[in-house]
Every structure is written in C-alpha cells, then in structure tokens.
Amino acid sequence: MIAIRINHFGGPETMSVSDVDIPQPQAGEVLVRNLAVGVNPVDYKIREGEYPQVKADKLPLTLGREVAGLIEAVGEGVEGFQVGDRVFAMIGADGGYAQYSRVPATHLAVIPSSIDWRHAAAIPLAAHTAWQALVEHGHLERGQKVLIHGGTGGVGHFAVQLARIKGAQVYATASGDSLAFLSKLGVDRAIDYKQERFEDICEDFDLVIDLIGGQTQARSWQVLGEGGRLVSTLEMPDAHHPQAQGKTGTLFITRPDGRELAEIASYVAAGQVKVVIAETFELRDAVKALDYIANQHVHGKVVLRVPQRDADQKSV
User: Which CATH class is domain 126-251?
Assistant: First the structure.
C-alpha cells in the first residue's frame, strides 16, 4: 500500500511516499481501508519531533491520527464489527496517512449514514479532545460559563458547539472574519483578542479551555472564579501563578474511545454539531495540507482524500 512516512524528524522534506506492506490486524483489532483521513496540528508536531510521546525509536513512522473507511478484515476476538462496516476512529501515533490502517476495535465507531467520508474523517481526534476537555477534565455543567481560546480551529469549533449542547454560556476568542464564524457556531460572546482583553470581559468563569498556551494561558487564571478550572491541551498551567489560588489547572493527552465517539457522532447526525471542513487535499498533497494548517487561519478541519489505486499516488 501507499503511506506518507517520515524516516527522521524535521520539516516538509522529511515526508515521502512509501510503498509498504498492508498491516495485518492482531487480536482485538480491525483493518480499515481508508477513504479519508483527518489532518491535525499534532501531525506536524510529530514530524518535527516536538511531540513528547513520539521519540526517535518510533521511526520510521506513518503520520496521521484520524481515519474513516471500510472494515477490510477483523482480528480474533473482535465483536460488534464486521467486514464492510463504515467506521471511523482516532488512532495511535502511527498509521493514518495511508491506504490501510490497523485500528483497535475499542477505538472504533460506526459512521452514521448521514455523514460522508470527509466529514467523518474530520471528527475523531478533534472532537474527542473537545469533549474530554469540557466533560472529563472540565466537569462542565449546565448553566456554567466557559471561555474557549482558539474557538475557530479543529478542536475549538467542536468545543464551542459541544459546550452549548451541555447548556453552558459560551465565550470564545478570535479575530477579524473569525468573529463571524464564531457567531455562526452559536457563541454567546465572540471576543476579538486583537482589539479586546478577554480578562476585561470575562469574570467568575467556571472553565477556561486553553488551545493557545503561553501568555494567553497565564492571563486566563484571573477570569476564573473560586474553584474554577483551566484545562489545556498544550502545556501544564502554572499552579504557582499568583491568581491560581483556589483554582485547578490541568494538562491532558487525548485518548481514543469508540463509545464516546459514537455519542459525539449522534450529535452530528442529529444536526446539533456541524463539522466544518476548511479545505480538502489529496493524500499525495499531505505536505501542502500540513503547511496550510500551520500557516493559515483555519476555520474547522482539513482532510485528505485517500486514493484506492496505487497509480493515483506519485509524490507528496
């Protein structure tokens, strides 16, 4: 099969088209023939050696963490799935940008019939991250107030919508034309971070979801009320910050969960959550896709279409 792999860490030049063996599912796994795969910032962080969970001993490595496709084969002990099922999943750090991926059955969910391949591929990692930030680590409850930094990106646009489903009052930061995008997602207040200081607008909030890091994260302590929570996907919040007393900071790494993904997919199928795709690239253009998300102000997700014939792939 064709896969987009790296043999060493670095920039775009490290990515190449490789002809590799189709993986065989082990016990508890299925083989998925990918029709579309998601692209995320973590992909270029892994490529550049900036993702702590992936060390050099994992190389060579196929990039990609989100897949959507058809089950091609089922490993021993797998129940609830069969060959031909339309499925999607967040997978480990090896295997997404390829024609086939080996996936633990516990990571999988069946794709609702109303969701096409591209939109299915855009959901798993980003929506898992948003859900786990809000629900598992943020303990968000109906009527609470949440501030989401970076509300227009892949994770952010899911977080805004899922927070609304949970009955929260949702504020989010953005700038320029992104403010209108946030309004369409249903935020109660879109904050222009270039023109306004969010700490002048937000007070006694219950939760902040930090998808930016740095000074944005540090400044976020002051908008939280007593017992408030600051949840980050990027760096551990500083518990010794002068304004952190009586509040909780959390850093977490997203984990795959098929049952959770199925619940999220039900919201998408019901029209309660809209999956926004900013751009679609061919698998051979994975370099361009990563450059796009690294350098553009992306609204929503970027996905790759996966060819079903080797001849369709020539170079990255």
Answer: alpha beta
